[in-house]
Amino acid sequence: MIKYDVSIYEEQDGSYTAASNDMDLAENAESENLALDALAASVIEYANEYYDEFQLYSKAPNRKEHLTYIMKALLLNDIEKIRGEMVCRNGEI
Predict the structure, then answer these.
(1) Taking residues 34-46, what's their average pLDDT?
(2) Domain ranges of the chain
(3) DSSP character string of 48-75
(4) What is the mean pLDDT of the chain?
(5) Is the pLDDT of residue 93 over 70?
(6) CA-CA to 16 of 20 to 30 Å: which in 36, 40, 42, 77?
(7) What is the model's pTM?
């Protein structure tokens, strides 16, 4: 089963960063929930970009491993559904 592995970091200014451990995506916001929502939106945006540039992205060494996550995001295409597929852990700065 494909899940999105996410680390949550509390920043020194009190904001939170949600970072994907599967893809090179991260978002910062005032709360953990807002950071996770922003990250889920970024996953959808990246999935659409990947799809649009499939010939390029699917062959790029740093992106071709993302395909399973991309396919799942394209099928779900909903922030709340993607949030439900995130496995979160506290990160360390």
Answers:
(1) 98
(2) 4-90
(3) HHHHHTHHHHTTSTTTGGGHHHHHHHHH
(4) 94
(5) no
(6) 77
(7) 0.93
